Amino acid sequence: MARGNQRDKAREKNQKDMAGQKNKNTQSGTEFARTKEAQAAIMRAKQEASAKKGESSSGATSDKKK
Fold first, then answer.
1. CA distance 38 to 34
2. Which of 24, 44, 45, 25 is nearest to 33 (CA)?
3. 25-33: average pLDDT
4. Against a cut of 0.90, is the pTM above it?
5. What CA–CA distances, in Å, run from 55 to 48, 52, 60?
6. Three-state SS string across the chain, please?
7. Residue among 28, 9, 12, 29 nearest 20 (CA)
8. What CA–CA distance (Å, rounded) separates 28 from 35?
């Protein structure tokens, strides 16, 4: 009988955890678009910084013999 009780307790705990999770997107269309654009701007800035860093270091490595 202990196993059945353990199984029921685990099921109850899992249902409680699943109920606490966020299920749907609560942002409206304009809020979602604004957030998406902000994230894209951050990524573009990171890519530009990475490209600049790569350009400056690639000049130093081009002097190596092949």
1. 6
2. 25
3. 86
4. no
5. 10, 5, 9
6. CHHHHHHHHHHHHHHHHHHHCCCCCCCCHHHHHHHHHHHHHHHHHHHHHHHHHHHHHHHHHCCCCC
7. 12
8. 11
Q: How far is CA 52 from CA 13, 42, 64, in A?
A: 51, 16, 20
Per residue in 50-62, pLDDT (tens digit) is 999 888 876 655 5
Nearest to 17 by CA among 9, 25, 28, 29: 9
Token readout for 37 is 């654009």
Would you give the distance in Å from CA 53 to the centre of its chain? 24
